[in-house]
Write a structure and sequence with these properties.
mainly alpha; two-stranded antiparallel sheet; globular; Ubq-SigPath_Reg; CTLH/CRA; CTLH_C
Amino acid sequence: MDLPTPSPSPSPSPSDSPPPVNWDSLDALVLDFVRSDRLIAPSASPSPPSSPSSSTTTATSTSSSSPSTSTSSSYCSRILIRLARRALEAGDVDAALALLRAHAPAALLDHRLLFHLHKQRFVELVRRGTEADREAALDCLRTALAPCALDAYPEAYEEFKHILLVLIYDKDDQSSPVTNEWSIKRRFELAGLLSSILRAQLQAYDPILSMTLRYLISIHKVFCSRQGVSSPISDLTERLLFEDRDLPAVPQECSVEAPPFDEVDVQALAHAVELTRQGAVDSLKFAKGDLYQAFQNELCRMKMDLSLLDKLVHEYCVYRGIVEGCSHALPGTSDLKCSQNTDVSSINKQRANSETHLECEMADNQNGGCSTSDITYHDSWSKRIRKDRSSTSGQGRRKRWRGRSDDLNYACETPADGDREILSPSFDMDEDVLIQKQDLVADSVFSDTRDMQDQKYEVILEMRDLTRKGMASKVVDEINDIDPGFFTQNPVLLFQLKQVEFLKLVAGGDHVAALKVASSHLGPIAASNQALLKPLKETLVTLIQPSENVLTKAVSLPVLASSLQLAISRRLGIEEPQLMKIIRTTLHTHTEWFKLQMCKDHFDHFLKIDSLKEIDPSVSHSMSKAPTDECGNGSSQITTCSSGKVPDEGSSPQALSEVACDESAIIKVMEFLALPRADAIQLLMQYSGDAETVIQQIFS
């Protein structure tokens, strides 16, 4: 009898009403990323300035189940791995060996790895084809490859004899028995294997943000594939996360039986990173049973486009005010939108057109064209930007973008933070001095054009920061002064800001002024928007509540500030950073995926995913509660099996199916049938939760 095929449960599209995201938590992860990989210049003072993520520093704090903060040693090790990878991919095995001898000699004690390196070196020497290289290849056979083959691993000597065929079969002979050995693909496989081994040995794991993105995007792809829905961010995810992975590192010991790992850990790892059960067991063996280390090893095997990730992060950092704007990036820096231009001859013309261009740009966003009336309407924004151009308070609080450098000696000798700014080593000091002189000559006339985009960000960030501080009345007055039509198109934002103003007055005991705000603003806005009547009533109830913590309990200022930032940015023609789109969409599919799995993600706290979903810390406990029982390591926990749908948080017990699946039964079906958790539960539902009955269907 054939095993019944479980029918997939219906699920919403990944683009359907994704929930809000805690952007402060993402700020903290991004700041950890740029510091870990030294993408920003260090502070000029010993104590780092405050950042937008200061309220969520716990998002990157270490814990027993979280990745440790990257150290300077880890940073150098990651550069070493990248350089060794590039050398092998280019066929320069000697360069890779030299790097290992100088910076990671312990890696060469792994005879299995050493044998692979010498084998590839032999092939590359023969590939070059000169007489001298052929002599060097024979010397490699005698002095390095043959001795390694004796004790690398049981099959090594047979592989050694097979590789000798390279000497007599041409690399272009596609019918030869050593076609695979000649393949350029072998370089990349060996480079990936070396990266996996070094990463684990040196504990050189990528920053949390990088691993979190890998995990979320991989789940997003699986979700879209299994549910048959299209991804709204496929153009980004396909470019950012590649399909192929580095080869896994394998334990040196060749034990026949696997250690008695908890099957819950095996299944959690297998389905988190799409491994076979045996692959998960091997990964746990290599990590000596440490689930989270094995998880990191597997995540970092997923290949990412690092240059694209840097650009996405830079775009986000400028938008959120973490780093200075485009015109303040250090020489050699590039990003998605910005480019340095030092053509002094065209400066005067650009300066003359810059403000008109800004006004037309904003008019285009509103009316699709530029006219005299449009320019007059938006002239207040332009005046505000010109007024703020002389202010450096905002930029002074932010970091300067430095860009990525892969100079190993420079990285290991230069402290991660210090009293001087770090310049990219690709620029020598003479060139840097020349650029500084050019900037001094051009600054007085060119800054109008170069800084215009930055000044847009300054206005936006000022409004955001005032909102975060609860200065709602000032925000409303400022925006009405510079753009009277803004709140006409964004009435909900006006309601929320006036709600904050109302609550502050109530907290201060000025109930008369609070009622005036309610009758003048909150009431009329709610009258034209029925959805606001309920929050209006709840706001008015605070009049009879204790004044303590009225504001913090009722309103999330960071969420409101982020919403306002997004709205003003759109008004000024600034698009939302693409990293925000990726995070918002993949967090939504992450939630939907684990609804299908009917359990809590084992790794959401480890990768700070829970903090990204935590919108308001004051109600974090109730918001983070999973709709189903958490599936931990205990076998006594129960997962309720409904008719293919996960029960809502408010569902009554009578609405749930009477069939209950024991956690041990779920794990047993997953193990024996190699099924995803959701499919295992669906099958158990069909057989009253009896794992033995489900498994017997294969043999009946």
